[in-house]
Amino acid sequence: RTFSPGFSLMELLVVMGIFSTVVVSASDIFIAANRAQRKISALERLQADARFTLEAVTREVRGGSIDWTYYAGQSLSLDASVEVLALRDSTNAPIVFHKSDAANATYCPDAASTPCLLMTLGTVGVDPPAPLTPKGESVQNVKFYVAPSADPSSFNAATGVYASDLQPRVTAVLVLKSTERIVEGAVVYIQTTASSRWYPR
Known about the structure:
Number of helices: 1
Strand order of the largest sheet: 1-2-3-4-5
Structural class: alpha+beta
Order of helices and strands: HEEEEEEEEEE
Strand content: 25-35%
C-alpha cells in the first residue's frame, strides 16, 4: 500500500513554535514603533503649543505698548525678570499675562494642567482670565524681561530730554511640561524677544 506524505506531530509543533515566535516578535516591534510614533507626536505638539503661546504674547507686544504705570516703582531691565507682563492694546485697554496661582487655578483647562499661563483682558482680579496653555501641559516657569526701565515717550520739559532712548522690548521665557502619560515629564524651553511698534515721540 502507498501512504500519502504528511507531517508528524513533532514537525507540527516545531512549525507552530517558529510561527508563534515570529508573530510575537513582529507584534513587539509594531507596538514599540507605535509607542515611539505617539511619543514623537506628543513632543511635537508640546513644542508647537509652546511656540503658539509665545507668539500670542509677542503679537500683543508688537501691536500694543508696555503699561508703564503698572510697573511704577519697579526696576525694569533685561537683567531682572518680572512674573507679570502688563501691556496696553491699541485702544489703551489693559492686557496682562501671568502664571496662575491658587486664586485663579480654576481657569486652567484642568487640575493636571496647573499652573497655566493666563491672559487677562482688563483688570486682574476683576475680569476673568483665559488660559493660553492647553490641556495636558503645565507651566513650570515663565519670566518676562522688560526694557527700558522708563517710558521712552515720557518727556521731561525741565531737562528737555526723554526718560529713555531705547525702543520698548520684551523677552519672554517659557518652560512648558507635558502631563500626558505617553511623554509625562517632557519639558520644552522656549524664548523670544519682541519690540513694540508703538513708539511715539
